[in-house]
Every structure is written in C-alpha cells, then in structure tokens.
Amino acid sequence: MTAMTDTSNAARFREFKMPDVGEGLTEAEILKWYVQPGDTVTDGQVVCEVETAKAAVELPIPFDGVVHELRFPEGTTVDVGQVIIAVDVAPGSDPGAASAPSEPEAAAPAPEAEAPKGRQPVLVGYGVAESSTKRRARKGAETAPPAAAPAAVQAELNGQGTAAVPEARPLAKPPVRKLAKDLGIDLATVTPTGVGGVITREDVHAAATPAEPVAPSAPSVEPAVPAAEPVPAGARETRIPVKGVRKAIAQAMVGSAFTAPHVTEFVTVDVTRTMKLVAELKEDKDMAGVRVNPLLVIAKALLVAIKRNPGVNAVWDEANQEIVQKHYVNLGIAAATPRGLIVPNIKDAHDQTLPQLAASLGELVATARDGKTSPAAMAGGTVTITNVGVFGVDTGTPIINPGESAILAVGAIKLQPWVHKGKVKPRQVTTLALSFDHRLIDGELGSKFLADIAAILEQPKRLITWA
Questions:
Q1: Could you tell me which residues are beta bridge partners of residue 57?
Q2: What is the spatial distance between Cα 346 and Cα 331, in angstroms, rounded to a whole number?
Q3: Annotated active-site residue in 205, 327, 420, 438
C-alpha cells in the first residue's frame, strides 16, 4: 500500500527544470519569481525571470497545475537541468485513491491525453510545447460532463457534426505577451506580422491604438541607464559581483581586444543633407507608424557601403585558417541596458526596405529597453553600429563584437562652423569611427568602406545611385 501511495503521489507532481535558453549556456540566475506556492499556473504562463550570460529571459511553465514548491530563492545561480519548480498537476486528488474508478482520468483516459503527438516551434524561453493540439483539462474547471468530448468525436466520425477543436495558441515572445496583458489585448485578435506568424510588439501596439501617432525620437537606440543606487553614509567602497551579462561582456571584450588586431579610422562629415532627409521622411506617408531618426539613414548607408565593399562583411576562422565571407548582413546595434551592454541584431537587414528597417530598429529598441532581448536576437551578427553620440560624445575607438570584423561608432551630431561652397557656414557635423580586424580587412578596404558611408551621409541621394 505504501509503495502504491508513493508512486501515485509522485505522479501528481511535475518538475520544471532550468532550460538552456541560449546557445550552450550552462547556468542562469533567478532574478524574480512571479508565482508562489499555492498559486494556480497554466500552460505558457511566465513563472520567473532569469538572467543568463547573454540576456534576461522570462520562463513560461509548460503545463497546468498548482505550484507546490519553489526550489531556489531569487538571486540564486542555478545550473541548466536543475529542477527549479514543482507543480501539482492533480490538485485536490487523493493519492491513495488514484486507481479508484471514480477518478475520471483513470477510468476513461481520452486518447488525446496520452503521449503528446504535436509540437510547436520553439520561441525564446519556451522549450517545445507538449500536446500542442490538445491540452488536458484541469480538474474543477470542466463545464461539460466526461462524455461530452467522446460524443463530439463520435459525431465527427459519423458525419453528424464537427468536433470542437481548440484553437492554436497565438505565437508571441513572453515580453510581447506581457505587453498585451498590460494593454488588455487578446492575442487571439491580433494579426501577426512576424516571421512564422509570430506576434510582435508593433502588432500589439497597432491593435491597441491603430491610429496613435509616433512621437519624434532622438538619434539613438541606447536605452536610458538608471542612476546608480545611493551609497550608504560612511561607505568607502562598494563591491559588485561580476556575473551574468556583465561577466560575459568582460570576457568577450578581452577576447576580442587580444585576439583581433584592431585598427580604428576616423572621418568627420557634414550630415546637414541627411538631417534634412530625416525631417522629410518623418512627414512621408510611407513611413507612417515607424520611428525615423538619423540612425536609420546611417544604418542604410552602412548596408549600401557593404554592398560596395563586401570584404568587410566577413570573419576570421582561426581553427580552419579561413576567411568566411558572409553574403547576408545581420546588423548589430549596441544598446546600453541596466544589466550592461548588449548587441542584438537585425536578421537579414540587407534585404529590408527603409520602412522595414525602421520597424526592425523600433522593435529592437523597445525590447532592449524592456530588458527582454533574447539570446537568439544577439547571435549571428556580422557587423555592428554603436551610437556614442547619444551621450554627447564626439567619437571613440570601439572594440569589435566577437564573431565580427568591423564596428562603426557614430558620434554626436552638432551644429559647427564648416566650409560649404567656399564659405564658412553653420552645418550639422558628426564624426564616424570604424574599428576593423586587420587580419582580413586591410587599410585600403577599411578606408574605402568608411569613406563610402561618409559620402552617402553627405549626399543621401547616393542611397539611390549606389544601391
């Protein structure tokens, strides 16, 4: 009897393990629990937020039930594969009576409640959802008698009717689900525009306020970094543990600086015409609903310059002693977040039109500001832009993002005296700095690439003539 009780009791509880939400990550820190023991959870509900070496990620639970136990407190670093939460999937049942005929699941298990037959695509923080076409109803939540479902199935088989099939769960990342919840938007009513039918933040905003005007923004994608916490009176120093994103940043920067031979070149350029183009684009009906700023034109100029100088869009493969030429551009945008510098990238940016590129930049910025950039969004970059001008800095010598060979720093755009058509006039001027890996990008190639970007920003019509 004891053995039967133990087995039944164990079957009541399902354990959720720390998943590998990145690419080969081994651990993550639990930042915040959104549930407590006794809370009811449903399949897909976010239960906690964790920080990996790449990003902060919200983790949804893949089954229904009542939280039985949280295995680790907030602030604990947990290895991938360790159980972090236990859920009672049969709350209110008597473990000793698991085999009793009165138990619906034991008496008449429905075919669809057996081993999962369908799987949905993996989204960030999800893992593969079990039983994607059918979900076991929670006890106490059924509104129809046990025979209702079999009757519907039989009616379908007899051609007498159509069995009710639950609709597929809308695909969206956890931050987008939270945004929809905060705005009171039902994701089932939102039309997805993302790849593979995934609902984006813009889709949710469009559903909430389809005619809401977009306010002008500064030429930056750098989210504001919160002010440092006040120092206790009398304290002479503060020690901050190096972990998570900060630890990964440090390791990556050291590895890049001492592996790739960096060369940095500078050019100061008159961007007055670019600023006029930005103003015109803001009034263009084709750009309605997207954020337009100088960074958008700079990003487009970089993409055109890569087309003219494809050797920049490559990487050094030390293990195989090869230069790997990329025929696509995943454009990285360095972003300052409360947890440190991250570099998410726009996949296949070279194929995007100007409105599409603007929308991609807007989504990237919003996600970074929320601190919810996924590891997948930061993987696979080929070239990066960092906008130090947002801090009022004229220029810098940026360190190449690991796995890439070039990074462009954009300085502050300022009104300065400039010789224009033989006369000194006030013009909008900025300084660009390009750091590149001298193993595969020599001075000539790097100089031509930087000069092309500057030429486009000085005469934006080259976006057309050089495209």
A1: 50
A2: 5
A3: 438
**Alpha-carbon span 455 to 460, nearest angstrom:** 8
The CA dihedral of 121, 122, 126, 128, to the nearest 10 degrees, is 70
d(CA 344, CA 365): 9
Nearest to residue 53, comparing CAs of 76, 24, 75, 82? 24
User: 309, 325 in Cβ contact below 8 A?
Assistant: no
| Residue range 318-337, pLDDT digits in tens | 888 899 999 999 999 998 87
With beta carbons less than 8 A apart as the criterion, state whether 334 and 341 touch. yes
Amino acid at 137: A
d(CA 364, CA 374): 10
Q: Tokens standing for 209?
A: 């306020």
Could you say which DSSP state residue 25 is in?
Answer: -
Active site residue 350: no
Say if residues 63 and 130 touch (Cβ distance below 8 Å). Answer: yes
- C-alpha–C-alpha distance, residues 189 and 185, integer Å: 8
The 8-class DSSP code of residue 103 comes to -
Residue 21 has which token pair?
């939400």
User: CA gyration radius for the chain?
Assistant: 27
Length of the chain: 467
Model pLDDT for residues 120-166, shown as the tens digit of each residue: 433 333 333 343 334 444 444 444 444 433 443 343 334 444 444 44
**Smallest Cα–Cα separation from 102: which of 114, 110, 94?**
94
Name the DSSP letter for residue 381. Answer: -
Q: Which tokens in the block code for residue 398?
A: 């940026």
| Contact predicate 387/317, CB 8 Å | no
Question: Rounded to 5 degrees, what angle do the CA atoms 458, 463, 467 make?
Answer: 140
